[in-house]
Amino acid sequence: MTQSLPAPARIAAIVPRYSACGDSTVIFSNDGNATILKSRIRAVIRRLAQCGAVDLAALKTKTRAATQRAILEPLPLAPGLILVPVKVRQPRVAGDVTTGYVNFHAVTTVCSNKNKPYQATVQLAGKTEIPVLWTAATVNRQLTLARLAATAAPAIQPVTAGAFRESFPGYEPELLTLAAKLVDIFNDILSMKLRQ
């Protein structure tokens, strides 16, 4: 059974974590709650993209072009969710993911950290603190890149019937009533034909 994910705008951070069962992922919400998933972080990111019908490969290509980064690019997955990569742990085994993601919109403060090996702490909405192995300057640079990625990302807007009609070429609002009457007439003609 697949565990459900929080709504994208409620996500404050997605962090990899070692557990007794192996590698897992923790999703912190804006209210400070934590959800532990048995999936790895890459699978969680893929699921978030699929839930929002986002082509992850195309999104990464666009953000790489906007930020001039070949790796660790920010991911604007949904309105209110721009995932900013930060290094949160040392790998136990070669190949383990060391990068977590903080939501750009949930970051309240980035400050230096005196507790080694962590060099910075990212404070998020809900009073959640994520210790980071990078310096505060590096984290702030990542947040700046997230702003660039957000401007390059395609606009994600809910489509309503009215918005679609108004953006459709040749749409004339005054013809809507006439078109509805024509559809009713065609339906009446078809139903009379079927009765014969």
Description of the structure:
- This protein has 196 residues and is an alpha+beta fold.
- It folds into two domains: 8-152, no CATH class; 161-195.
- The protein contains five helices and nine strands.
- Strand 1 (11-19) and strand 2 form a beta hairpin.
- It is elongated, with a radius of gyration of 23 Å.
- The termini are far apart.
- Mean pLDDT is 82; it is low at 157-169.
- What number of structural domains do the residues give? 2
Structural class: alpha+beta
Please tell me what the overall shape is.
elongated
User: What is the spatial order of strands in the main beta sheet?
Assistant: 3-2-1-6-5-4
Strand content: 25-35%
Radius of gyration computed on alpha carbons:
23 Å
Order of helices and strands: EEEHHEEEEEEHHH
- How many helices does DSSP assign? 5
Task: Determine the mean pLDDT.
Answer: 82
Question: First CA to last CA: what distance?
Answer: 54 Å
| Helix fraction by DSSP (H/I, runs of at least 4) | 25-40%
Main β sheet profile:
6 strands, antiparallel
Number of strands: 9
- Pick out the low-confidence regions: 157-169
